Amino acid sequence: MKRDKAVEFESLSFLYQGTAKKALDDVSLEIEEGEFVTWMGHTGAGKSTLVYCLNALIPSFIRGELKGKARVLGRDILQSRTSEMSREVGLIFQDFEAQLFSTSVELEVAFGLENKGMPRHQMKDIIDESLCLVRLEELRDREPSTLSGGQKQRLAIASVLAMHPRLLAMDEPTTDLDPVGKWEVFQLARKLQGPDRTIILVEHETEEALSADRVMLLKEGRLLREGSPEEILSNSKLLLEAGVAPLPVAEFFSRLGESLGQRNGPPPLTLEEAISEFRKRLRLRPSARQFLEGKNQGSGKGSRKKTALKMERVYYCYPSGVEALKGIDLEIGEGEFVAIIGQNGSGKTTLAKMFNGLLRPTSGRVGVFGQEVGRLSRRELGRTVGYVFQNPDHQIFASTVFEEVAFGPRNFGLEEKVVRRNAEEALAAVNLLGYEDQDPFILTKGERQRVAVASVLAVKPQVLILDEPTTGLDYLQQQFMMKMVASLNQKGHTIIIITHSMSTVANYAHRIVVLHEGQVLVDDTTRSVFSREIELERACLRPPQIVRFGNQLGITPLTLEEMLEVTESKS
User: Fold this and answer.
1) Which of 112, 218, 339, 549 has its CB 3.0 to 4.6 Å from that of 41, i.e. a possible disulfide?
2) Cβ(69)–Cβ(8) under 8 Å?
3) Residue 146 Cα to chain centre, angstroms
């Protein structure tokens, strides 16, 4: 049975006002009503611009030159108002915090319903259902500003779901969600999909994209390729061309097949398929466990030489009454690379802010290189512990990149020649030399993130804390960012990252601290923690796909390369 078209774009091009390069360049695509489609591609590929076209934000509010034809749910967006389109098209923006403005979680979800003129008694069931779908029912009376980043993202989703839109478009809706939360969003999308509701997800996560009906890859404003998830996600070279991370098990079998001279059709995509295929024709090398155990030497808390950061029985209660930390004991050694992970609202950011004095414990002691934080001045702490916020826009304020990066050293009273030298070294470290005179607010999200890192590096702190350093970055940008951070660790900096990207943790961190409901649930080497999947599930966490693959075979590889090294053919 032929279905109506939910989205019809024909030769669509768009040039943002004041720019020289087209954000969309001759894009033609169709999406049928009731389909679940995922748009993927590098940062700047045109994904968000396409989303803005769905409810006439382009061209009604976002200025620029639009050419081509665009029909959404039968309406010509060139002749439609956003206020009209928004009744049937629900958007969740990449900058989800910009959508939140009410004084309570419940009122946020009720806002759209009130604007539709729905009677109050009819709202209750819809609000309850929407909050339940995103696991926020117990936080209905909280102010949105007191929620964690992931909880705010869930709230933005709930507020749009309550409107029951015919077309729901979510622009990177899982960036701040814990791993189980990411999986739940895709399962929710599949649940919401139906003959009368079309779903479009913009996403970087390849494993979750298997849930979609179709995947569309965009590159530099053009539609590079479209097809079924099996067709697109099995092609690692195509994904890399589009700046998307290949699916780990598919990449494993593709690379192994090349090294063994075997080409046996498309690689498996799911964990179950991969395990079955492995057991048919592959096996672990006899020395696999010893090889991986040898990789653990020199990492983790057992190798530290000097205590850099320490917490003793730390409690923290916010003015709202939310108890975020409940008796934390933690010690981090100089030169360690530690990942702090946990579900949304587990206390990760609260804990990290203790180390540079942004928050002071309700009770307990926090020490930095043997000195109690409460007895150190802001200046002393700032020189010792650098903090890069989850959203770079929360710390960028200067009119040029150089002034932004130079602010810290100048504020500490360093001579101008030292300020300039420090700023240039910091910009070189993040590959931004030549950007000194640019306005940081017109840079891409990834570039602004690097400016924020450089502004902290220019002070030359001994400890660097990065809150969600890969959020909003595409695969290649994530690799660049984390290689830069790893190089700083190799030069002696103590690194702490707060992240929901389990692949980032597996590839770079030596040690993991898992928080759960304000307490330390697990604290051990990365390999040891990722081998304990049942404990991680309690904290809504899942190891990366390649790690789960190895765990089922009785070993715990942290990277694709490790898995390749311990595998051989049965023949």
Assistant:
1) 218
2) yes
3) 20
* Pairing status of strand 463-467 against strand 385-388: parallel
Strands 307-317 and 363-368, sheet pairing: antiparallel
What does CATH list as the number for 305-550? Answer: 3.40.50.300
- pTM, two decimals, is 0.86
Secondary structure class of 381 (helix, strand, coil): helix
- Please give the C-alpha separations between residue 345 and each of 81, 139, 304, 423, 437, in angstroms, as whole numbers: 38, 11, 29, 35, 39
**Average confidence score pLDDT of the chain:** 89
Answer whether 556's CB lies under 8 Å from 546's CB.
no
Q: What is the DSSP string of 124-175?
A: HHHHHHHHHHTT-GGGTTS-GGGS-HHHHHHHHHHHHHTT--SEEEEESTTT
Question: pLDDT tens digit string along 256-296?
Answer: 877 665 556 788 999 999 999 999 989 999 999 999 988 86
Q: Do domains 5-226 and 305-550 have the same CATH topology?
A: yes
Query: If we measure between CA atoms, which residue out of 231, 177, 172 comes closest to residue 40?
Result: 172
CA distance 549 to 23: 39
Query: Which CATH superfamily includes the segment(s) 5-226?
Result: P-loop containing nucleotide triphosphate hydrolases (3.40.50.300)
pLDDT of 135-147, one tens digit each?
A: 888 899 999 888 8
Please give the structure tokens belonging to residue 226: 């479209």
Burial class (CB in 10 A: 0-12, 13-18, 19+), 413: exposed
Are 270 and 210 within 8 A, CB to CB? yes
- For 17-24, the CB contacts below 8 A with 24+ separation are 17/63, 17/64, 17/65, 19/64, 21/221, 22/221, 23/49, 23/64, 23/221, 24/49, 24/50, 24/221
Taking only the tens place, the pLDDT of each residue in 191-216 is 777 778 899 999 887 888 888 999 99
Q: Label residue 302 by pLDDT band (50, 70, 90).
A: very low
Give me the residue spans of the domains in the chain.
5-226, 305-550
Which has the minimum average pLDDT: 9-18, 113-122, 362-371?
A: 113-122
Is residue 347 within 8 Å of residue 147, measured between CB atoms?
no
